[in-house]
Amino acid sequence: MAQPLVRVLLGLALVVVLALALLWTFQRRLVFVPDTTPVAAAGVVLPGGEDVRLRTADGLELGAWFVRPPGGDPAATVLVAGGNGGNRAGRAPLAAKLAQAGLAVLLPDYRGYGGNPGDPSEAGLALDVRAAYRFLVEDRRVPAGRILFYGESLGSAVVTELALEHPPAGLLLRSPFADLAAVAAEIHPYLPVRLLLRDRFPVRDEVTRLRVPSVVVLGTRDSIVPPAQSRDVAAAASARLVEIPGADHNDPVLLDGPEIVDAVLSLVPR
User: Where does the Serine aminopeptidase S33 domain start and stop, copy by copy (predicted)?
Assistant: First the structure.
């Protein structure tokens, strides 16, 4: 009886090892969910929008949209870092409302998103957002003191890491998580995610090192990023906290609602 039992146990162990190996290999397909479809010309989707190209330090050329406010110089320029899904077309309504409020906006797409080349990763997104920042300060001559960072969900991690090197005039984090493992553990509590994850995105730890005006916006019924994690980030950053009652992660009010626009405007340097 012992030998059949041993064979069963060995078979189960092999299945577990194979499953973990597959998860290690393909985990980024679960973390990053890009819409790879090439986007339309900026002016078709975003009135007054301009198609621009960003060059990363590792040689990729990424598409992005830039829009200025109608009828005057911008009060500030917002660099928007999107979440883990979609592409910049889904953030066009936010950019349009910010432009109407008197701000310029840069909407970049990460590598692998919106028809861009490359495969997304934590290190890759860090290079991508730096290319966006360089475009603003070098190509468009935007003073660093007039740039705001806006991070949506996973994008909160992207701009927080950038802010450590290039502190902005203000930082808005929408639905930030404490770190990637913390939010992954909520979704997959049965997996040893802290051992398996290749990308970390340690938002909470990094915001403690920042000294910039910050706002955290969350929806109280967020089903993807637990509101408690966003509150934890806000406390660690000494940020102003804006809670939108009843809002889930991808509800329109959290994408481009008036509370979002007002929160961005509250960070504009006076």
Answer: 73-182
